[in-house]
Amino acid sequence: MMKQLFPIRHVMGYLASLVLSAAALIVIYGDLSSGANMAVLLITALIQASLQLFVFMHIGESADSKKELYINIAYALFVGLVTIFGTLFIFVWGWYS
Amino acid sequence: MDLDKFKVHGEPLIYGAMVSIALATIGILVGLTYFKKWGYLWREWLTTVDHKKIGVMYILAALLMLFRGGVDAMMMRLQTAAPEMKFLDAQHYNEVFTTHGLIMILFMAMPFIIGLMNVIIPLQIGARDVAFPRLNAVSFWLFFMGAMLLNISFVIGGSPDAGWSAYFPLASLEFSPTVGNNYYSLALQISGIGTLITGVNFIVTILKMRAPGMKLMKMPMFTWSVLITNVIIVFAFPVLTVALALMMFDRLFGSQFFTMANGGMDMLWANLFWVWGHPEVYIVILPAFGIYSEIIATFSKKNLYGYTSMVFSMLIISLLSFLVWAHHFYTMGQGAMVNSFFSITTMAIAVPTGVKIFNWLFTLRKGRITFTTPMLYTLAFIPIFTIGGVTGVMLAMASADYQYHNTMFLVAHFHYVLIPGAVFAVIAGFHYWFPKVFGFRLNERLGKHSFWWIVISFNVTFFPLFFLGLMGMTRRTYTYSEESGFGPLNMLSFVGAVGLAIGFLLLVYNIYWSTRYMPRDTTSDPWDGRTLEWATHSPMPIYNFAIVPTVQTRDALWSAKQDNIPLYDDKKITKIHMPSNTGKPFILGVIFFILGFSLVFSLWIPAILSGIGVIVMLAFMSFDRDHGYYISAEEVIATEKKLKRGETV
Amino acid sequence: MKIDASKPLEYSTEENSNKIFGFWVFLGAEIPLFATLFTVYFVMVNRFASGPSASELFKIGPVLIETFLLLSSSFTIGLAIHAMRHGYKKAMMVFMAITLLMGLGFIGIEIDEFFTYVHEGATLQTSGFLSSLFVLLGTHGAHVSFGFLWGAGIMIQLWRHGITPATANKAFIFSLFWHFLDVVWIFIFSFVYLKGLM
User: Fold this and answer.
1) Counting C-beta atoms within 10 Å of the first and last residue's C-beta, which end of chain C has fewer, N or C?
2) Which site among C3, C34, C36 would you substitute to test the B interface, given the most B Cβ atoms closer than 10 Å to its Cβ?
3) Contact, B551 vs B532, CB < 8 A?
4) Which one-letter DSSP state was computed for residue B478?
5) C7-46+58-195 adopts what CATH topology?
């Protein structure tokens, strides 16, 4: 029963996300360059997000809509990232100066 | 409380409108009571979850809004018809062009298209209804209440007056102190939520509820275009939602998003608006492409040429549509690198669009063409839209755009894109699918008369604007001097506008005439159609198909008629599961309306109460355990027999 | 209604699996929604005018507690779904209750944080940076609050009717929503708080 209530994969996912959150703290307590800091944040955040998506949300479990779900998320990320980076491109990096 | 802010002062025109709105409302209420139609209205329409009825309501609302937006347009053309006209003052001119744009795009073109897809998509894919019929009703009522909220701004408190794009800082509280732009943010927000729900609903419907055998690459082109459109809706509308919310925060709660001081950034509004706004253009144009594809194939009696390339060009357009938004503000101050990037992506869109144009032309080639009214609109669309597209490429060149920007040239360009690209399409689709819904065709002779009025007058109205733009006339100017030399062309444009009005009145008269006198269609397939919507009766029974059809080819009905490929595997009629009607979506819409209205006027207590009301309604809907009902097999058989005899049910 | 016994209860009817799919599409729409809020925040982050900047304002303590609560609640709602799939109604209810309580704790800390900010003179009206911060955090917080009410409503239905195709479907969709809020929080934690304190 305990095994059914606390599936190992799930527990490991939880522990991993706690560890990753703690690891990200290096950007405030560590002494890395700001580029390295951003890399740390990106990597820890992306792994955690994928943990949620694959381990907790079971995105791949339904055989008849797996492909559609991946396309859905990919399209959403495309639009989201284009909005973020396109806007930064316009207002920050590409601004006339 | 300060009652003064509810009043709109000044113009006899507005007082006239108030009186006529009041009279019309009283007339409707008295009429409903006198003819004892309240129960009918509630049972058959306000509580319906039937996709066909919801679609019809969308189209009715869109026609109403077409009239309203059209009157705005006539007022603008009249005001600018001659130099120094005194018909409208600057403020009213601002309000009129703002509401004209908003209504035509968001409350006419979009609902008309959503209405057509509501009616047709489930039929075209052989489904009994959409995936979530009740949410569909929620969508409609949110759209409708949003539209009504924007429309009452005209007589209560004042209309938005900062353009349909509502650029900051002009739209800020400082420069637009009336409640007009509060209406803008809330009305669009409410109807936008409805549209987003529609998007989700139709994606699921098309991906999950197609008839057996209808693979993705066997879907009719209209279904494909609607699928891609809804994908754009789902991913673009959240951006508008956020932008409108920020606008509301700025105007109601004093936040500093788009302000000129305290770190606010007015240009960020323009940016967010167009991140949504450009995909929005494709939201109204892609379904039009789908409608035209159906009509061209039907009336050329040929398969659509280049089906696969049609699909892929739409997919590419949907991705590119998210990559071009900065071309709406080349002159804002970003660097040459940014402008070059967006210039190139913009021009790239012309490629897949060109592919589609050639595919239509090749479909026409060697076809047996019949010149029906919908086909005439389609044929007129191709050259006129091409003019719109080519002038679009001119505008896409950032350096040249510094000359065209915000001139009448731009106005001419987007009318040349949107009128053939959306309005002609919905009119064509309206003529084409009208017999499906009502069981009789619109009169062809009257239809062709109105077609020629509309298509010729359209060019008379908007072609002169290209030259006015090149002469230097800016958009949104309410008057000009005699010396500017803008007079004659503006007068010509006004004459065209009158012709357009006549064309649309003829269209309305045609609906009236045909309803009274056109013979009833007994074949259910008046155009010799190719797709599944023509495989059931016209008008269709509530369950659409007594037996769900099976699909083996792209034009399933055509193959059934030509090559005797059977449409129905299973001849046995079984009981059919249907969703039950519910009044909750309508009530939710009304509460949203009250919420929006209260926020517009910063009436906090009703706003909080209606906000709680929304949550309570959602809880009611969640706790609802009504899972629909069954129509028994015997009842279906009886209905089918009646329909085959040509009786109505 | 046709019930497909080979699938988990929450997917078992066509209506149910359509609802799950539709909710995924809706979550797809939430991604650009939050991306736009992040866009606004990133453009505004250095536009703090005369108000405090990110590094002056943020304190890591409450943020760590919020992160821990939300991560753990995402874990427990996952456990609730596992319990549901094994038919353990009581365990499922307990895990859901823990989830919602942690959500409530999160909201409490966030409200306290907002009060502290306002007390320090950092309000919605102070600067572009603060407007964008409040609206980004507030939208996420509003989602959590809405989720709390929604989850409570589902618990009532579970308690009344047990684990049926309908309630299982609702609970599963709710779990997707809750996990998604955690994903958003991870990005707020990393790119708002940690980056601001960097």
Assistant:
1) N
2) C36
3) yes
4) -
5) Four Helix Bundle (Hemerythrin (Met), subunit A) (1.20.120)
